[in-house]
Amino acid sequence: MNNEEEFLYNNILSSSSSSSAHQQIQASSTRKKRKLNGQQRDEATVREKNRMLKLNKAYHQLRLVLPVENKCKLSRIETLRTAVNYIYVLNQLLGVDTN
């Protein structure tokens, strides 16, 4: 950290009224990334793969219940936007106040 960065860092910390904010900034800047051994890395990879499979299955199930005109696969963001709009329309049909 050069002198200018240190000056800015100290001014930000001194303007903060909370000492916990100072501790959080210090902890986040000094925290080291945890290193995994080979077995731990393999286990983490399997967990991540299972997480993504569950997430993809959930998106697939959501796409099945959405009323879409074109039958091409929607992207994740398109799926979520379509679901939000569909819920909004259903609420309007039921006369439910969403506020």
From TrEMBL:
Q: Which SUPFAM superfamilies match?
A: HLH, helix-loop-helix DNA-binding domain
Q: Which PANTHER family match?
A: BASIC HELIX-LOOP-HELIX TRANSCRIPTION FACTOR, TWIST, BHLH DOMAIN-CONTAINING PROTEIN
Q: What is this protein identified as? A: BHLH domain-containing protein
Q: Where is the signal peptide?
A: none
Q: Where does the record place Low complexity bias? A: 14-29
GO:BP terms for this protein? developmental process
What are the residue boundaries of the BHLH domain, all occurrences included?
39-90
Q: For the region Disordered, what residue ranges are annotated?
A: 13-48
Q: State one molecular function term (GO).
A: RNA polymerase II transcription regulatory region sequence-specific DNA binding
